[in-house]
Amino acid sequence: MSIAAPPISRLTNYINGQWAESGASEWRDVVNPATGEVLASVPLAAAADVNAAVEAAAAAFPEWRRTPPEDRIQPLFKLKMLLEEHIDEIARFITLENGKTFGEAKAEMRRAIENVEVACGIPMMMQGYNLEDVARGIDELMIRQPLGVAAAIVPFNFPGMIAFWYLPYAIATGNTFILKPSERVPLTMRYIYQLLEKTGLPKGVVSLINGGKAAVDALIDHPKVRAISFVGSTPVARYIYARSAEKGKRCQCQGGAKNHVIVLPDADMPMATQIIGDSAFGCAGQRCLAVSVAVTIGEAQRTFRDSIADAASKLRVGNGLEEGVQMGPVITPQSKERIESLIGVGEKQGARVLLDGRGAKIPKYESGNFVKPTILDDVPATSEITDTEIFGPVLSLVHAGDLDEALAFLERSAYGNQASLFTSSGSAARRFRYEAPAGNIGINIGVAAPMAYFPFSGWKNSFFGDLHGQGRDAIEFYTDKKVVVERWAKEHSRKF
Ligand code: NAD
Fold first, then answer.
1. Which residue numbers delimit the Aldehyde dehydrogenase domain (predicted)?
2. Per-residue pLDDT band at 46 (split at 50, 70, 90)
3. Is residue 391 in contact with ligand 1, taking CB distance under 6 Å?
């Protein structure tokens, strides 16, 4: 795998089927987090760029909407093949700009492709329902119609996958779609849009706008944008939800997380260690479903602590494009600083640093933002570190007397993205599934990421809205229901 950076370029937007120079006055460097090299320069879009994209998307909508669903999914079949063919190139861009390992980047793209596959079922999934003779001679039917222009704003941690929770469903249901990727990782979607260009989609059906807050505000405020999807941190999710509601828009906003796993003493400890280790330290802890706090019960306090500390200390940290590297850097120097300072806060508030990843030095990569796996033991159940999303490779260990106490601890969390349990007891598992206060539940699973045909759920401050991304929720989100009640005179039908 080549680890040379691509030549630096000034990124453009994709509007009306063409790559267009941005009119932005402000630009920002896209930086490789493993090396500190500048990869490209990204515009922080001007409102005029957003306006051009929305107008092109609005102009493309009437014809796209009239295109039969069976024809609308043909470009998605092509896209699936192109993504498969180019998965290595895409994964390389993901690793270059995000830092995760090449293997993690490829795994991310598998989940993206899965969403394209599911959206190819739209001719079935988009169907409504009907009933004859709701009154004598009167029939009633419900049909689904696309909304118009839909937009999605996505975060840095999955540069390839998260856009696919939205794009395939939005266009297959007949909407036109605008994506605003994270300004920290815009290269992956640029490459994917180059593939989208080859699928035969009519111009204006998909657009790409690079930018930051100003671009997001312009999208929300534009009267021709009907629906907003967002994934990112909780404060921004809350802001976008409120602003979209004020403008009368349909909106779904996924926010931050603080995910818990409960380890019972009857768990298969080697399996639990491997899976929880992958969850806590995979993608350098920058997954929205990463386990952040492990609550151990009884004897698991000692057995799990010893085994996870041993496994985490052996993880090979480095440039994700190098063979054998198991964990990459965090996204920015500011992020590294914040994570290290939160470890310090944990220590001050009574936690014992069992494994200390601060001040990591990786040979050849002195300018990289590396934090090695860190484990904080005996973390007080109420402390800043148990409430704050760290978004780095830090696992806190909290101990509880029994499952009641552990569940009460989860209940107090402000977030509800994911909760997991490791056990061999069916009744404990059932109780957990029933009571755990989170939208994505794992039983002996560390990253309970729903497959594309299930909604990517999330509760409390991890989600604002009601319809989630993926699966049937996506069809509901991207369509309006229309109910038709019909009566035809008997005399008229007799003529035929
Ligand atoms: P972020 O909130 O900083 O940015 C997300 C997007 O919002 C980016 O496109 C960014 O340009 C835009 N943005 C940033 N500030 C804005 C503002 N003030 N107004 C309008 N738009 C703004 O998030 P991030 O750092 O890119 O991603 C990490 C966060 O995303 C973590 O909190 C993580 O838990 C969360 N996340 C959640 C899920 C989920 O499914 N719940 C999935 C992935 C990531």
1. 19-484
2. confident
3. yes
